[in-house]
Amino acid sequence: MLTPRNYHTWKADIMVFLTCENALEIVLGNEDPPLANASFAMRESYKKQLGLATGMVYSSVEPTIRAIINKLPDSNPAQIWIALREKFNTATSRSGRMAIRKRFQFTAMKEGTSVQAYITRLTTIQQELSGTPDEMADQSLISHLLQNLSKNYKTLVDIITHRPTEGETVDSITTELIEYETSNAYSLHQLGPTQIPLVPLSTDMP
User: Fold this and answer.
1) Of 83, 76, 19, which Cα lies nearest the Cα of 47?
2) Which among 31, 86, 98, 201 has most CB atoms closer than 10 A?
3) CB neighbours of 105 closer than 8 A, spacing ≥ 6?
4) What ranges in 89-169 are assigned the alpha helix state H?
């Protein structure tokens, strides 16, 4: 559901749904309506897809944003798509990108938060800057991620930061952190919270 604060996440999600319904190209403005002399079946098929695309976009935004759509002079889904992008894509301006960067810098893992939730917040912000002059490299994200984990991850962070970065990706680091979190949670459940956290089950260290 699109809100004033989740444009990029919403965009990624709705594009998947539109693709599944063969309606994405209409929304992106890449598919023109059939010519007047096109067959009845072709014109009806396009009309159906146009209505489906409009309905999917309209129903995927919160009521206050629907009010904005209702004021548009054209209900064509491609025009709705452009209007929503111009209204809610804050990364289009330099000041907007600076605000996104600042939000990224202040994002840290809080006690009691899962590592997956923390990483998702960071990757969502990275996605907001994708394709802009301030696009964020994966290594910048990984560095911030490791530096701002909760203290429970210190043992693993020390190991990761002292080994070669060759072949390292956001996905590989995510998998490693989740496995570490799971193993520690199991240890605490079995042995009690006073026990020393487990070290990683396997590392690249000798």
Assistant:
1) 76
2) 31
3) 144
4) 94-105, 115-128, 138-147, 154-161
CB neighbours of residue 70 within 10 Å = 9
Q: Is residue 111 scored above 90 in pLDDT?
A: no
28, 81 Cβ separation under 8 angstroms: yes
Q: What is the predicted pLDDT for the residue at 9?
A: 87
Contacts of residue 62, Cβ cutoff 8 Å, sequence gap at least 6: 1, 2, 3
The sign one gets for the Cα dihedral 35, 41, 44, 50 is negative
- With vertex at residue 49, the alpha carbon angle to CA 48 and CA 52, rounded to the nearest 5 degrees, is 90
Residue 69, CA distances (Å) to 13, 75, 198 in order: 19, 8, 53
Instruction: For 38, list phi and psi in degrees, rounded to 5.
Output: -70, 160
If one counts every other C-beta atom within 10 angstroms of the C-beta of residue 142, the result is 21
Q: Mean pLDDT across the chain, nearest whole number? A: 89
| Backbone φ and ψ of 157, nearest 5° | -60, -40
Which whole number is the average pLDDT over 50-55? 96
Total-model pTM: 0.66
What number is the average pLDDT over the span 61-88?
Answer: 94
Closest CA to 56 of 28, 109, 14: 14
DSSP state of 31: S
Do 100 and 39 form a contact (C-beta atoms < 8 A)? no
Q: Which residues contact 25 (CB under 8 A, 6 or more apart)?
A: 31
